[in-house]
Design brief:
6 helices; single chain; two-stranded antiparallel sheet; globular; 219 residues
Length: 219
């Protein structure tokens, strides 16, 4: 990922953040609510064309009732400064240096909830090859293994997690992995389609996501 592309993502995140505060429910801008850094390749805050139409995902409105959402473009030290909770919703592959800084941030006491879908079924309106199109699968660059999890895809494209060390436990029949990472924690959900409202199980899985976020919410 080039510096120019990172800069473009940074500008997009800043624009999304400014517009989001005017389009999300009033409660989302309430300074008394916990802050939630959001890193995603999905059009959760704005439509895929970056217009002012309503967000395609109702999940943002649900999350915004309990958290002040702060979009970030990359999971590096500068972007994570001042945050204690991060939602990575089917993120793009992060630069190697950002992965090191993300791991250091978690081990220092940060909490990350990661939606890692091995086969994204949600259909993007952007053409194949468009750099703003969400990736078809989670780009696992070794971070999950470093924390103690292995992600696999079943025959129907459903994700499944397996713990590879004693610091991680797997719940919900392999859908959720919870790891203690230094003084922090990582909670991984092997699905991301539900946050775009795709799938008949989407409401239950959104409730599951809210439970994971609230479990790590700053007290």
């Amino acid at each position: 990922m080039t510096r120019g592309w990172l800069a473009a993502l940074g500008l997009a995140a800043a624009a999304i953040g400014a517009i989001a505060l005017t389009t999300l429910p009033r409660a989302a801008a309430d300074s008394d609510r916990p802050r939630l850094a959001l890193l995603t390749s999905l059009p959760l805050l704005l439509g895929e064309q970056f217009g002012l139409e309503a967000p395609r995902s109702e999940a943002v409105s649900r999350i915004g009732r309990d958290f002040t959402i702060a979009p970030i473009a990359v999971a590096d030290q500068a972007s994570l400064a001042g945050h204690s909770l991060l939602l990575m919703a089917h993120p793009r592959a992060q630069p190697a240096e950002a992965l090191v800084e993300l791991d250091r941030w978690v081990r220092g006491g940060g909490a990350v909830v990661l939606l890692a879908d091995p086969h994204l079924a949600w259909e993007s309106s952007r053409p194949l090859g468009d750099r703003l199109r969400p990736p078809p699968d989670f780009a696992d660059t070794g971070l999950l293994a470093h924390w103690g999890l292995r992600l696999a895809s079943g025959e129907a494209g459903e994700g499944s997690l397996r713990a590879t060390n004693s610091d991680c436990t797997v719940r919900e029949r392999g859908l959720v992995g919870v790891c203690r990472v230094g003084r922090g924690s990582a909670r991984v959900i092997a699905d991301a389609d539900f946050i775009m409202g795709t799938g008949e199980d989407a409401p239950r899985r959104l409730a599951l996501l809210m439970g994971q976020l609230k479990a790590e919410s700053p007290r």
